[in-house]
Amino acid sequence: MHSHSGGVHFRSKPTVDLAERLRQGRMTAVCLCHTGDGPVIRRNADNHVVTARSPGPGELWRHTQARLDFFDGMIRAQGLRRVLNAGDLEAAHRDRAPAIVQTIEGSQFLEARIERVAEVYRRGVRHLQLVHFFRSELGDNQTESPDQGGLTSMGRQVIAECNRLGIVVDTAHGTMRLVEQAAAVCRTPLLLSHTAVTRQPGPRSRLVSREHAMAIAQTGGVVGIWAIAPTFESLPAFVDGIARAVDAVGVDHVGLGSDVGGAPRNAWPDYGDFPVVVRLLRAKGFGAEEIGKLVGGNYVRVFNASVRAA
To answer: Which of these, 8, 92, 100, 222, has the minimum number of CB atoms within 10 Å of its CB?
Structure first.
């Protein structure tokens, strides 16, 4: 439900044959995204992502347009399918055709221009994350001091536009208050694409409490568990994290938010290892139907509900 595989942030050409890695792993699709605030964030000496500077006028919109061009080229070169409509994920699975749900992580490219949601929709985006690390006009994020009261008026307008067009609404990186307010206005199930569920998240942590995760589940939505270190140092530890999330919110509301390419270290760095994840889930005691939900079925349900709502 969340991937940065293949150099999507800044590279001029893909660094990975994603289609081949999906085939190798017997996978159908990933939600592939660039970061809307990528040019202005950096990792510091402690490996924390921080804002390095403020963007220039129009800079983040130009960045997103360039990344949309990158996606077009990657899809052509690798023979990937672009998932656009309800039923497309099931069709790709049936045909064993590698596919992507085109995604943007953070809506800073909007620059207060709501019409840009429709523009990225025309370019193939079907999954939009409201906030990321750089301060957003849409609402508060988990890693900065919350000072906007959660979801802003602009954030509510963007959710309404996503519902109108048919775009998955992703609240990853948002504060719990933002999630609760988004749940009150969104007409479709919410996604929280990549995190982990813990008993007591620390200050400015990207992890979420059971209550935070339940706010997503109560919309019919899904929480994606990431595989990044140091949260999870191995694939068995990652699967343990999936099991804890299922204990917290139920098997219908958990999915895979691998975050491949999103951090320097990942317990699941290569989608060719997907069969290992499935075997570990089976060894953990999950049955075939439950595994089907966790590894894709839950996301398919949210995707189809979101695009059909339009």
So the answer is: 92
Q: Is position 175 within any domain?
A: yes
Q: Which of 170, 207, 176, 202 is nearest to 189 (CA)?
A: 170
pLDDT of residue 10: 87
User: SS3 of 234, please?
Assistant: coil
pLDDT at 83 over 90: yes
Task: Indicate whether 48 pLDDT > 90.
Answer: no
Asked if residue 12 belongs to a domain, the reply is no
- What are the strands, taking DSSP E only, across the chain? 29-35, 41-43, 49-51, 81-82, 99-105, 125-129, 168-170, 191-195, 222-225, 254-256
Measured between alpha carbons, how far is 234 from 240 in angstroms, rounded to an integer?
A: 10
267 phi and psi angles, rounded to 5 deg: -65, -15
Considering its fold, how many domains does the chain have in total? 1
β-pairing verdict for 125-129 and 168-170 = parallel
Q: How many CB atoms lie within 10 A of CB 306?
A: 27
Distance from chain centroid for Cα 298: 14
pTM of this prediction? 0.96
Q: Tally DSSP H helices, then E strands, for the chain.
A: 11, 10
**Which structural domain range is residue 168 located in?**
18-308
Which tens digits make up the pLDDT trace of 131-165?
999 999 999 999 999 999 999 999 999 999 999 99
Percent of the chain having pLDDT more than 70?
100
Q: Coil, strand, or helix at residue 255?
A: strand
Answer yes or no: is 212 within a domain: yes
Task: Give the whole-angstrom CA distance, residue 162 versus residue 158.
Answer: 6
The CA-CA-CA angle for residues 201, 135, 72, to 5°, reads 100
On whether residue 10 sits in a domain, the answer given is: no
Question: Which CATH number do you get for residue 292?
Answer: 3.20.20.140
User: Which residue type occupies 277?
Assistant: V
Burial 34-43 (b: 16+ CB within 10 A, else e): bbbbbbbbee
